[in-house]
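wait is this the right file?? whatever heres the structure
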């Protein structure tokens, strides 16, 4: 993945040396469950996922410039809710220590620009569980359009089932922003 830069952040491919920073935020019980995955129980759990990030090349490490610390991740993936081939889905997670500073909005804007400028897609989507209001606010700031909520949509790692709020942005809508 191409490295992207914003005022405060660098979005780059993950490296094996990012393990400690990745594990630090991924073990937090307030982080993973908001995205549907369990808090990492060990560095080995994080190592396995980090290896998949590196091999698949779909996920950027979000690095804070001021201290060169990995504080989250952002990926552009196939949207499992859609079968069209020219659609991608934005997914992201941020360390709780950095919530409320506008960092995810900043990172996502750079990724959205990159996606529409370099990938042949017509639609970018993003989802959040209905209870995750922080994510909803990021999505709205980015200019996505609310499509609706799929009720009883996602069973996560602990067996709970959540409603999923769905948003999208077309290439034309992005160009108008």
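ok assuming it is, sequence goes like this
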């Amino acid at each position: 993945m191409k490295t992207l830069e914003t005022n405060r952040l660098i979005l780059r491919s993950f490296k094996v040396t990012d393990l400690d920073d990745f594990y630090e935020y991924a073990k937090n019980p307030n982080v993973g469950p908001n995205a549907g995955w369990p808090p990492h129980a060990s560095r080995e759990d994080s190592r396995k996922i980090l290896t998949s990030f590196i091999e698949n090349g779909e996920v950027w490490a979000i690095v804070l410039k001021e201290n060169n610390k990995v504080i989250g991740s952002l990926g552009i993936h196939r949207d499992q809710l859609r079968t069209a081939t020219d659609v991608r889905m934005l997914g992201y997670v941020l360390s709780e220590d950095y919530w409320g500073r506008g960092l995810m909005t900043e990172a996502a804007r750079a990724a959205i620009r990159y996606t529409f400028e370099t990938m042949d897609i017509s639609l970018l989507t993003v989802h959040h569980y209905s209870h995750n209001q922080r994510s909803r606010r990021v999505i709205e700031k980015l200019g996505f359009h609310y499509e609706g909520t799929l009720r009883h949509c996602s069973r996560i790692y602990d067996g709970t089932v959540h409603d999923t709020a769905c948003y999208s942005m077309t290439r034309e809508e992005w160009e108008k922003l």
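The domain at 4-176 is CATH 3.40.630.30 (Aminopeptidase). so i think its the right one actually
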